[in-house]
Every structure is written in C-alpha cells, then in structure tokens.
UniProtKB/TrEMBL annotation:
Belongs to the pseudouridine synthase RluA family. Pfam families: PseudoU_synth_2 (PF00849). The keyword Isomerase applies. It comes from candidate division WWE3 bacterium CG22_combo_CG10-13_8_21_14_all_39_12. Residues 29-199 form the Pseudouridine synthase RsuA/RluA-like domain. This is Pseudouridine synthase.
Amino acid sequence: MQTVDTFLLLPWYNHHIVFTPEIIYENEDYAVLNKPNGLVVTPGAGHDEIDTLVGWLVSHYGEGIRDACVEGHRPGIVHRLDKDTSGVMVVVKTLDAFHHMVSQFKNRTVKKQYEALVWGNVSETLEEKSHAGIETFEINAPIGRNPRDHTRFAVTRTGKEALTSFTVGKVVTIKDTQFTQMSCMPQSGRTHQIRVHLKSFGHGIVGDPLYQSRSFTHKLVELVKDNDLQDRLYLHAHSLTFIPPGETKEKTFTSPVPWTL
C-alpha cells in the first residue's frame, strides 16, 4: 500500500464558501486529492467552472492543465464523485496521463472502496433473507433514470448493468435508532450506483438528499441538533487502486473516513 505524506493547500475561496482540497500525493503527471463533500467536480447546469473542482485545478495548476483532456472538456478529470460524496480522487496534468487513466477506468481495472453509514441493521435483513452470518454480499441490479422522476436514478429493468459488492461492518445504536457501517466496492460506474443499490436493499445512506425518506430526514435533523451525527451524506471514497502514469505496478491511495461513531 502506498504511504505518502499529506499537506493542505491554502483555502480556495469560492463566493462565501471555503473549499480546501487536500493533496494526498502528486508528481508531474497526476495528483491524488481528498475532495470535500459539497464540492461539484465538473461544470454543468447551475454550476459555473469557478464553482467546481475543475475551476480549482485551473486556478492551482494554471491554464496548461486544459491540455490534459480531449477537446478542452473537463480538464484534468478522469472520473467523478457526486457533489455530496467526499474522498479520494485522481486527477491528471498531461494528455498522456489522461489517456492512461481513462483507459483503466474504461476497462474497470481501477479498484474503488467507499465507506458508508446506512439506516437500519443490515445483518438482521440478511438473516430475514436466510443469509444469517453472511458478512459480504453483492447487489447485481440494472440502474437507469427513475421513470417517475428523471432527476433521480433507480433499479429498473431497462437500466444499464450495475454490480456492487458490500461488506457489513459494525451496527451502532444512537437514541434507539440502529445504523450499520458498510464497505462498498462498485464493480461498475453508474451514476449514484451505491446510493441506489443500498436504497433498493432497504438501507439507504444516512443524509442522502435525493434518496432518503422524509421520516428519516426528520430523524436526522434531530440527531444533528443533538450533535449525534453530522449534517452530510455519509458516503466517503476511502481508497483508490490503479497503475499510475509512467509506472507498471498498482498503488493504493487512501483518505481517512471523516466521521467517528
């Protein structure tokens, strides 16, 4: 496993919000970052470039990073995390590094592990499904646009194939409410894949602004008021394993889980 020193950059001031991306490792070809939750990765509807990670990359590395992409589109970006997901990301600084990393993501050779906190006791659900004692399981279910709400995704028959592996962690109880810590390893890269798969399993991620039920949202508000939980999506990209540009062996980079229970 790659062991590297970390250091913080000077804060990047974006209107009234201060984002401080953390550099986990970098060289002349690529950088591994710890993205804070709340930071949008690429420009799009409602998000100008300056409001995104792309804007931060241009600001920090200069206009030359615009060459690290195809046709000036999303410079430096070879994969994405949702706005509300924090954690480890790799970005590139050259066109050669861009093609090298895009190829690995396309061929699904990059290994990704996320940590999540979900509502309820997952072990009990597995027991009810006659899987008592099981600590690891998979959800293999296609994901597509929700036909009743095109701003969301759902498990649908007409969706694209999606596979996620899960490992059940410890169960914690906070004010009579049970939660389960989960390790999540997506084998494909569908939008909102982990969030949708866990929701379909009956154990949505805590703090999910799109998929959390109204009753759980009200419960979370009370727990946040009492400082029992944070006001955030409890999904964090914990580790990323890939072959760096110019190298032949895999390296793993990690970002510590930003909550304790």
